[in-house]
Structure prediction request, 1006 residues.
Amino acid sequence: MRNTSSRFRLLSGLAAWVLLAPATIIAAPAVQAAEAQVIDFDIPAGTLDAALIAFGKQSGRPVAYSQDVVAGLRSGGLKARLTPEAAIAKLLANVPVELRHTGGGAMVLKRFAIPVIYSSPLEDPISPLLEPVAPAPTEVAEVVVTGSLIRGQSVGASPVVTMSRDDLDRSGRATIADMLTELPQAFGGANSGDTSLTNSDTTGGNASVATGVNLRGLGASATLVLVNGRRMAGSGLKGDFADVSGLPTAAVDRVEVLLDGASAIYGSDAVGGVVNVILRKDFSGAETRARVGVAEGGGALERLAAQTLGATWSGGHVLASYEHYHRDSLASAERDFAATADLRSLGGTDRRLFYSRPGNVLVFNSASAAYVPTWAIPPGQSGVGLTASSFQAGVVNLENQRDQTDILPEQRRDTVYLAISQALAPNFEVSADARIGRRSYAYALPGSVANLTVTSANPYFVSPNGAASNVIAYSFTDELGPLRSRGKSDSLALSVGADIDIGRTWRASFYGAYAEEVSRRANTNRLNTRFLSEALGSIADDPATSYSAARDGYFNPYGDGAANSQAVLDFISGGYIRTRYASQIKTVNAQADGVVMALPGGPMKLAVGAQVRTEDFQTRTISMTSRATPTKTITGPFRRTVAAGFAELRAPLVGPDNALPGVRRLELSLAARVERYDDVGETRNPKIGVVWAPSGAVIFRATYGTSFRAPSLPEVFEPQDAGAAFLQSGSTTKLVLLRYGGNPNLKPEEAKSWTAGVDYASKRWPGLKLSLTWFDTDFTDKIGTPVYDDIYNVLGNAAYAPFVQTLDPNNAADQAKLSALLATTTSAGLYPTNAYTAIVDGRNVNTGGLRIQGLDLSARHRLEALGGRVDLSADLTYLIDYERQLTPTTKWVSYLDQAGQPVDLRARTSATWSRGPWAASAAVNYVDDYATAQGVAIDSWTTLDAQLAWRPERDGLLGGLAMALSVQNLLGADPPFYDSPQGVGYDPANADPLGRFVALQLTKRW
Prediction:
């Protein structure tokens, strides 16, 4: 375990430098006089790191060490009257740490050359894991690495990326969500704030602007997110992904990302991989953290404040952490590429809508089966006294739908985390933790638009063609303002567990966990279409309302300016939608692991266990958008029970004791899991892994396994419905009836995953480590809504023919089917039935599939240069294939390098120079060029991040202080231009709109 927070030691800035020059003399004033001093030491048992911090405080003696030296080690504590020399000798008596005294009297610690636990082959050299070494005084505590159920010290077959506390701080990001989405293996996709606000998330399932992790582009629902190994409750309108934006940054110890299918270990959702966020536990003292940041131009002001307190004692610990985070919204007007939907100045298309003010008179064109703007209502007039000749034939008024909107939402989060453990006996330990959080958000969306049917019942009615009624495309943004959304997501996670040593090498673990997320959202400032019809005079005055058009005024749709009184506008803007959805997961888990037998290559280890899990989901909606009274809709509660049994075996066939030429290590791992769902049936998933080390510098590894994702509860049980919608078809829009809802016939998605890789740790250059991984995933029966995923290209695209039924206005059967569907929807009566051109099926279905293949390359190098230490790193992901099959009968189509889809190459390289209290780092992020579906090129995107950090080598007030000045996108590079149909000039799936962002962070360890 790494805990790289600031440390109490006089020479804290030399910690990493000591690794490279452990025998260097460290100055320590006045230590000669201190050597004979006798001190009453009172150091509680706990982590060795905490014990050394207490020793430094009580003795005043400088101790220098790297966090790698003490990682995973514990101390029995000390309560005695001793000299500092004798005291530290006792603290280190039974741990694999070497104490060196420098000529100046300071103390330097170095780890003995024994096998060390690593979760990734690249974290440290491989050779110590392979070469025979002298036995250590005590064993390093065994840990469980993400991707395995077995405690152990060997590197596994699956690729794992570990991000430490220091990695998060050096990244310059404020949240775990920001750091995870920066991974080259992650794809932005639909589950982020700006994809929701730019309408790029066509499913509308992330109205709470949560942030999901989408590994490999397989979907956020196919990436399993754990916290301390426990499942999070689902987020979004379907509860099908985990929201990482609500996790507290200050409480994070490290994050482990498994880049391989792992349903054999964890069950459902672990198709693209697993993200395990491990929160702090063993922590002694106090840590205060504060951060402020702002984007260029003043937008997205960010504030963070956190306080962590912890204590350790013999056999136990307690920790409490609170964090507050607040980021202001970023208005679309703050970014040139998002301020207006007219993208011609950027080299694009005018994407403004003909739903405008003043509006446009539409005429139904039977040839194109669409309403076409034919006359423009003249601008600069009050809408009174118009004649037929006042209208402008062949002219179209256009509206900037991005006006008054946000491109990033306001986010506010408060989180409390508590953790405690206690050994009740030498072989029995109990633990518990709780995480409580509230995330609030607010944002503005484009205002209401509507097609108004105006008749002579309206006193302002004027027809440019003499018709008895006209349809006017109208925007209400000027009069009513943008749509406003506000909401909050409350999360709760509780876990209680026990670990029991049951004899010999076996340990049993039990835990019960509860996770809940309750989200509430209010969408206000909406148009109520029934009230509008009343104000237009299209329907008679409703006695149920307090409004009378004849008395209070009719709505005038012909003006440009103050054409309507505030009383009229207040009446028609009384619409709202209030939504509440709640997701719950309850888990009981029991497992045991230990040594089965001794093999020539080492001990064969086995883990077995069982789990029972219940999942609940419910939504409640109250809407006031098309009726005189609120409509309340409750779906659920939906519930399922899942029972699982699982096992994992690790067999070291060749190890140090029976190594052969060309086979220094050979290990086989097998895992299997069976899950039975009470609604969608049973799944069985195996996994096999092989690790082979032909020498002390090279390791080859490979895995094969099957994974699955069970459909979310709403995907199965959500009621089916339909509504009127206008979809683009070429240069026109067509009215369709769009169906949506659940599907009780869904079955789990299935996937087959392969990985193969090689890891190299140079003996000639000890700081050089390289890793290459090939991955291949074949995802079948994928659950989705192909229509919503590509809603702007559905009409006219033959690939979507199975989901589109074209309607003939003269066909009685077509009209009867349409009428029957309309009768059950709120769209009934909005438009004549012969105006509908198609029925489009957007319900959940098991689609054909998704295939991906690619390479991950990672490199690390550490060297001495420029008078200090230099750490170099590079991470690159290259996608070879990214193909979709919309239905089982359609052909496979490549979506790689298309707008809104994964790009073939993403990379991040960094360099950090450190010397004494100073550290400077720079990182380059790269996204390769790609194109639109029509073949229009989109440039590559390169951004530079930089950070300057200072940790003063002083005691007293400055002791334990760390300061960091970070700049993301230092050069202020705008995202590459994309002529998006949504009217923004960038691709939210592959870039972000934040721009240059400067942040100052202070951390103080007390």
Q: What stands out?
A: The longest helix spans residues 48-59. Residues 1-36, 113-141 have pLDDT under 50 and may be disordered. The chain has 18 helices and 50 strands. The longest strand covers residues 575-599.
